[in-house]
Amino acid sequence: MSDNKTSNDSSSTDARRSGADSSAAGHSQDETRDRRSANPTAPPEAAAAASAPGPQASATERASTDAPSSASNVEPVDPSQARHDEARQATREARASSASATAAQEAVVPETRRADSRASLAQNLETATEAQAASAANSHSASSDSPMGRTASQPAVGLPPEFTAAPDFGKLNAPPLPLPEHAAPPQPAYLKQSDSAWSVFGRIIAARARQIFDRAGQRVTQRTLRIGVSARIFHPEPGARGLRGKTLQYLEESIAHWVMSRDVLVFMIPTVGNQGMLHTSNIRLRDYAKHLDGLLLQGGADVSPQSYEEVTTRPEWPGDRVRDMYELELLHEFIESGKPVLGVCRGCQLINVAFGGTLYGDIATDVPTAGIHVNEQYDQHRHSIRFPDGSTLANMFPHQREAIVNSIHHQAVKTVGRDLNIEAVSASDGIIEAVRYRKAPFVVGVQWHPEFHRAGGAELLDCTPLLDTFLRVARETRF
């Protein structure tokens, strides 16, 4: 009975073992199939070897996990000792680099400086070594005393202690103190205590107004000058056709170019009036005096003896009464406006007549002893003039008491008009060559033609100072 029981137990035990073996074999076959499916190109021997567990791997796994002495085999590392070793290593590297630098310098530095260089380098090396050793010792003592020294990271060697903490920006830029709820904001420091909102506003408006006026003044003062030139008049010839049967008003080219040489605008002023005009106009000569900055009276026909209440000595010299009336009115309007006037040749004679003076109708007839003031050479004829002491022209030409000018006139000033000064006379016969009205900023007449004088010429008088003075007064008096 017992034998049967024993045999039954053994048979059941064998059955369980065979079942377990078959189950393990089944699992092994499944794993082998999985590996073959993952790597179909691998040979069966390799798959079998991979499926078989290695005794060495299992021993290693047990040694690393199961053995109780595996954790104690790894020795702990002291952080302070590691930093000390790093400092010593840095010291050795510094010594090596210093030695190499010393050797390089000894190869270049002359023999007389090698001893000094060696001593200096040795001293620097010793100082650096001591500083690094002291820093390492301080770091080691701090890490050993502190309970967190083994885990907390220490600052780099040689850094000041304030670099170990984050900066406190609140301490550097403290927030402003809050104002009371109903308190007014503080007044800016640049304002006065007595300043109110209206006073500040008034100053702003005044500053803005000054700026606008300054800009307007600059525009006015920098505007190009506008100089008016009186017109020469060509009267129609009886029975003529074409232009000779018409009244022409024109100016000589040289007089315009002379004025324009100083970069100013030149306008010819025509005659005005309603008699015999096809197209009437309300424009008057005073309008030209209002809008122009100066007047230049150019030369041309003789002044009529009727204009200074005398009778002509010769019928072929009647003068131009129409032009006299036109230019006398023009001269009066510019003087009333305070604008400068410059008369040339006939213009000089007209200024004298305007203030009550008289003229020689013909110099050769009225003054037989006088020199020749006109001939066939026209503007090539010339003579010498002299500036009286204290005259405006003498001050205008300070280094010239006498000068040579052209002479193209047969009329001349006889009696000087009221409030006129003599500015120049002919050096040979004393005939008046220039006058100036002393009750105006600039009203000057010259008997010669300055537009025919070349600027900077060596022989004839350079009349550029005369033109510049005229234009300067025009700029100053145009408001």
Automatic annotation (TrEMBL):
Start-end of Pro residues biased regions: 175-188
GO BP of this protein: polyamine catabolic process
Cellular component, GO, one term: cytosol
InterPro entries in alphabetical order: Class_I_gatase-like, Peptidase_C26, PuuD-like
Basic and acidic residues: compositionally biased ranges: 28-37, 81-95
Any Pfam family matching the protein: Peptidase_C26
Residue spans of biased composition, Polar residues class: 120-130
Designated name of the protein: Peptidase C26
Organism the protein comes from: Caballeronia hypogeia
Lineage: Bacteria, Pseudomonadati, Pseudomonadota, Betaproteobacteria, Burkholderiales
